[in-house]
Amino acid sequence: MQHRVGSDLAGLSDVSTDNAVGGRAEFWRGSMRAWDLAFWILVAISAAFAVPTAESAGAALASLAGFVVLVVAYQLLGRRGARLADARLTQSYLGVLVLVTTYETAAVQMGIVLLFIAYSHIWFFALSRWQGLAWTVALTLGIIGATALQVEATPADLPQIVGQATVGLLFSIALGLWITHVSEQSEVRAELLEDLRATQAALAASHHAEGVHAERARLAQEIHDTLAQGFTSVVMLAQTSSAELDAGRAEQARERLAQIEAVARDNLAEARALVAAFSPPALDDGLAAALRRLGDQLHTQTGLEVTVDAHDVEVPQDVAVALLRAAQESLANVRRHADARHVRLALHHASAGTPGASTDAGGDAPASVELEVVDDGRGVREDDVEGTGLRGMRERARVVGGDFRIDGTPGAGTRVTMRLPVPHQDARTETHA
């Protein structure tokens, strides 16, 4: 039961009135019917005991009037103040409650039964522990005086009356503080739960943003490794075709135009695959076949001698895509930058402990498969190893738990290696010269 909201959890300190009553307003919205029912039942029981025991009709009417005042005060001050988070209304109600309870105790013998309502409402409507204690003491002092008047006590009777009232006071304080502590713990748990929900919502938003960023980066890398490379080929082939037309070599120019059309069709298929979120169409016939087609295209478009040494392996889709994109990017770099005469493209099984080593097809399943692209061109400089394409290949290898490296020195060619964990099967080798 939430008797007080927003009080200091560590001691008997006062708290913000707005916070306390505002929290109680939330409580009332959730438990108003239960509190109303409890109030009406207690009022009915108290009136049933108190009014009939009045010594005269006038006293009975006076007692009944007191109950009416209490009901009106509860409706207009206590109940309304709690729902509207108005501290002035709730504290005014407590004042009326203490006065009516004191009056009923003095007027009729059984008026003291109102204490069941009074003590519970004090600890609910009080804004702090100190305020609850103050109202409880004030009520107890009023009850002592009212009881003394009602029974026409003598000085000898006062110790007994004070003792009984003190026992009730201590019991009320102990019960009120205990219930308040339980209520505060419930409030703390509710706040922690709300904080947890807020944190979960923030994490969900953060993860969503990270997912969006990662997806954008993935699409950017896919476009760089597919469409951008194809467009580069189209530009180079178009320039070559234009030069051949200027030189009067119409037949060679027509061949270049046919190559441009083939590259454009491949790009169109890649674009459709990206939109549909399918696997690259080049992998429809397997990774080894895709690598051989890359070798054919490079040889046809540039005249380079291309050797393809590819094992026909069954690999997971993400591994196959990573290897294919690495091969495409590496061959595009050879075309643009290497000034090479020969390129070797190899896909082979690598043993678990020896980089670059391979195993026979009939042996035990190796730890990984390795893609190598080796050219005899001008090599790489230190500032060449941080380009967008190379960073993309490193990231692809990292995502599937593999390794990527590039080795080479100026004038001595370049070796690009990507090693990823997969099983292996048989091998085939082709050379284009």
TrEMBL record:
Keywords: 4Fe-4S, ATP-binding, Cytoplasm, Iron, Iron-sulfur, Kinase, Membrane, Metal-binding, Nucleotide-binding, Phosphoprotein, Transferase, Transmembrane, Transmembrane helix, Two-component regulatory system. Its cofactor is [4Fe-4S] cluster. The keyword Transmembrane applies. Member of the two-component regulatory system NreB/NreC involved in the control of dissimilatory nitrate/nitrite reduction in response to oxygen. NreB functions as a direct oxygen sensor histidine kinase which is autophosphorylated, in the absence of oxygen, probably at the conserved histidine residue, and transfers its phosphate group probably to a conserved aspartate residue of NreC. NreB/NreC activates the expression of the nitrate (narGHJI) and nitrite (nir) reductase operons, as well as the putative nitrate transporter gene narT. Its main location: cytoplasm. InterPro entries: HATPase_C_sf, HATPase_dom, Sensor_HK_TwoCompSys, Sig_transdc_His_kin-like_C, Sig_transdc_His_kin_sub3_dim/P, Sig_transdc_His_kinase_ChrS. One of its GO terms (cellular component) is cytoplasm. It comes from Cellulomonas gelida. It comes from the Bacteria. It is found in: Cytoplasm. PANTHER family: NITRATE/NITRITE SENSOR PROTEIN NARX-RELATED, NITRATE_NITRITE SENSOR PROTEIN NARQ. SUPFAM superfamilies: ATPase domain of HSP90 chaperone/DNA topoisomerase II/histidine kinase. Its EC number is 2.7.13.3. It holds the Pfam family HisKA_3. Residues 318-424 form the Histidine kinase/HSP90-like ATPase domain. It catalyses: ATP + protein L-histidine = ADP + protein N-phospho-L-histidine. GO terms for molecular function: 4 iron, 4 sulfur cluster binding; ATP binding; phosphorelay sensor kinase activity; protein dimerization activity. The chain crosses the membrane at residues 34-51, 57-77, 97-126, 132-149, 161-179. This is Oxygen sensor histidine kinase NreB.
